[in-house]
From TrEMBL:
Pfam families associated with the record: PDZ
Chief place of localization: membrane
PDZ domain span: 42-121, 116-208
GO terms under biological process: cell-cell adhesion; establishment or maintenance of epithelial cell apical/basal polarity; receptor clustering; receptor localization to synapse
GO molecular function, one term: protein kinase binding
Gene source species: Cyclophora tenuis
InterPro entries: PDZ, PDZ_sf, Synaptic_Scaffolding_LAP-MAGUK
Keyword Ribosomal protein listed: no
Protein name (database record): PDZ domain-containing protein
Domain of life of the source: Eukaryota
Keyword Membrane assigned: yes
Length: 219
């Protein structure tokens, strides 16, 4: 019974995390060693009521809010998030204050909760985005395009499950649920996404030098 420790805020802020576009595609999975994990991860889970637990333990450590534990069999237990990851935002609200504030933000959320973390020793050119489908037929909301023998994100649908994820237009799809998609046709990538009945974890590489932008509101 956790979701311990956590946040809230106002005022508009944007934290730009620059990432290099150099280097080839490197396949990683959420279970890979720490040095090969994506540098940034978002996980979106469903929360039916205020009493629903997402299973995230948090504590203030080494100057930042970090994941202290993840409850087994909880909504976040199969996400790429790991103990020790630095929590950047919850539902676009920056986590720069106490764990209690972040906990309150999760508790008061109904519908979906999106947690964004930084893997400080991860690959800063890669992002992972996990979304949970309330129904097998639910749409993740990615529009893809082909290019250079791979599949790229053309648009993130504002009505889709991935709208609050770290995926952006221009990102190159690397893997879907640990399946190498780095040279896969658009139709096959979309099939892999649609075939996932519960959770979909997409690893992507940002080709742009602008990198990841995490938008948050502070209060």
């Amino acid at each position: 019974d956790t979701d311990c420790c956590h946040e809230s805020f106002t005022a508009q802020t944007a934290v730009a995390l620059l990432r290099s576009s150099e280097g080839g595609i490197r396949i990683v999975t959420p279970s890979a060693s720490p040095e090969s994990r994506p540098g940034f991860i978002s996980a979106t889970v469903h929360k039916k009521s205020k009493s629903t637990k997402v299973g995230l333990g948090m504590q203030w450590k080494n100057g930042a809010l970090r994941v202290s534990h993840i409850v087994p069999f909880s909504p976040l237990c199969d996400s790429p998030i790991r103990v020790g990851d630095k929590i950047l935002s919850i539902n676009s609200a920056a986590c720069t204050n106490s764990a209690k504030e972040a906990f309150d933000l999760i508790t008061n959320s109904i519908g979906t909760v999106t947690v964004v973390v930084q893997v400080e020793d991860g690959d800063p050119s890669l992002v992972a985005a996990m979304v949970t489908k309330p129904f097998p037929e639910s749409l993740v909301g990615l529009i893809l395009r082909p290019g250079a023998g791979a599949s790229y994100v053309r648009k993130v649908n504002p009505d889709g499950l991935a709208v609050n994820s770290l995926l952006n237009a221009g990102d190159r799809i690397v893997s879907i649920n640990n399946q190498d998609c780095s040279m896969m046709a658009v139709e096959d990538v979309l099939h892999a996404i649609r075939s996932a009945e519960d959770k979909v974890t997409i690893v992507a590489k940002t080709e742009s030098t602008t990198g990841v932008v995490v938008s948050v509101s502070a209060s």
